[in-house]
Design goal:
Strand order of the largest sheet: 4-10-9-8-7-5-6
Structural class: alpha/beta
Order of helices and strands: HEEEHHHEHEHEHEHEEEHHHEEHEEEH
Largest sheet: 7 strands, mixed
Number of strands: 15
Oligomer: single chain
Mean pLDDT: 96
Strand content: 15-25%
Radius of gyration: 21 Å
Length: 427
């Protein structure tokens, strides 16, 4: 393994992050487990950054990919593509957006990049509203709207980005307020901001902030924002790259927790729908999707083999009610972790919904973010046979827990026990 690590460092960028002091090579997986090159088995509570949505080596997806590979892998969007049309039809109907059109990309970054192109073109404005502590990708345009310094390597941008309060409930100037007052204060902040700027094209927001540590506002915040945005003709882009496909348990899309004022104008997705295959995409009303006045294609977006995987994966998700499983098993897991947290002064909060759970760590003496403890817990969990993630903004340090949605109750309990031991070792 040291040889592979040395080769990695010699040929790949220094900024390409790796987990663990002694990085592992994952060679294969099955169900909710993966194995490394040393033959060690791990319970996977991170799913390749929320991408292995249903299960590792899911037979239905494996079969669909194999059969499609035996016919044709790729032809580009210059030709009719039956699997792409079929998956687009399914997603358009599920999106909740009226008269929806779907454009496929290869990643969430590219999906958000496309959404920004559509919004700025439709509105003839390069001003964007984004949330503090947000993350939307690693392209030039999406870095420019990311409100998380750790993942924003450049301040240069073709966009003027203005950041709005509300994405983090438990920290910031409005944290002491109750939910109704919190929403009212954030809306007042938005209204004040709009009085000082040129008309923005859109607000882009993750219903639950992923890289930011699985933080979220009270339900209904973005519905209240939407009422204000609509008065000004400003679009709402819901970044569902991490929250989509039923992961939150209570809803199929994260925006539905804020759906009182209707669906978003634009929805972006990626990660889980491909179960590891590279699929991203944008859903928008036809008038927005069709606003571009130049030709465009997607060489690899919507390619046949990824669409076959997406269709099989979506069918499995719906037929086995994995959204319901996320709600049931995720609810048990959250309560189990909250019981542990109540005994540990370094665990500031256990938050989330469904199988999208954040455990925020803080120094007991000061309440400040504790990234060293987060790293220590990550290492200890791995030693115990559990893989988790981490994240957070400038004043948060959180563990990220997002297993495949087919997680069983027994596996949830097994993972919670390992994580409890890791947390107790840190505190």
């Amino acid at each position: 393994m040291n040889d592979l690590y040395d080769r990695h460092r010699a040929v790949l960028p220094d900024w390409l992050a790796l987990y663990y002091e002694d990085p592992i090579e994952i060679t294969h997986g099955e169900g909710r487990h993966v194995w490394d090159s040393q033959g060690r088995r791990y319970l996977d509570f991170f799913g390749g950054i929320l991408t292995t949505m249903t299960a590792h080596a899911l037979p239905e997806v494996t079969k669909a990919v194999s059969e499609q590979a035996g016919r044709i892998l790729h032809s580009s969007t210059l030709y009719l593509n039956r699997p792409m049309v079929e998956l687009a039809e399914r997603i358009a109907k599920l999106s909740g957006i009226p008269d929806a059109r779907v454009f496929f990309t290869t990643s969430g970054t590219e999906a958000n990049d496309t959404a920004l192109l559509l919004a700025t073109t439709h509105r003839r404005s390069n001003t964007l509203l984004a949330m503090r502590n947000s993350y939307h990708g690693r392209s030039f345009s999406t870095v420019g709207i990311t409100g998380n310094r750790s993942w924003s390597p450049s301040s240069l941008s073709p966009l003027q980005t203005l950041y709005v309060h509300g994405g983090v409930r438990s920290r910031g100037p409005f944290a002491h307020l109750d939910d109704a007052a919190f929403i009212a204060a954030c809306v007042d902040d938005l209204k004040d901001l709009l009085g000082h700027t040129r008309p923005p094209a859109a607000l882009i927001a993750e219903p639950i902030q992923g890289v930011g540590g699985f933080t979220s506002p009270p339900d209904g915040l973005y519905a209240a924002f939407r009422d204000v945005l609509r008065e000004h003709g400003i679009l709402w882009i819901s970044d569902e790259v991490q929250t989509g496909w039923g992961r939150t348990g209570e809803h199929f899309w994260g925006w539905q927790a804020h759906g009182r004022s209707g669906p978003p104008d634009i929805l972006t997705f990626a990660k889980g729908i491909g179960n590891g295959m590279s699929i991203g995409g944008v859903v928008a009303r036809a008038e927005i999707m069709n606003c571009l006045d130049a030709n465009s294609i997607s060489t690899f977006g919507g390619t046949q083999i990824t669409m076959a995987a997406g269709l099989a994966n979506l069918n499995y998700l719906l037929e086995h009610d994995l959204q319901g499983n996320a709600r049931r098993v995720g609810g048990l897991l959250i309560e189990r972790l909250r019981a542990v947290a109540a005994q540990l002064p370094g665990v500031r909060e256990v938050r989330g919904r469904g199988l999208m759970i954040g455990v925020e760590l803080a120094r007991p003496d000061t309440g400040e973010a504790d990234p060293r403890a987060a790293a220590a817990v990550l290492e200890a969990a791995r030693e115990g046979g559990l893989l988790i993630g981490k994240g957070g903004g400038h004043d948060t340090s959180a563990l990220r827990i997002a297993p495949p949605l087919s997680l069983t109750v027994a596996e949830a309990e097994e993972g919670a026990a390992v994580l409890e031991n890791a947390l107790r070792a840190a505190y």
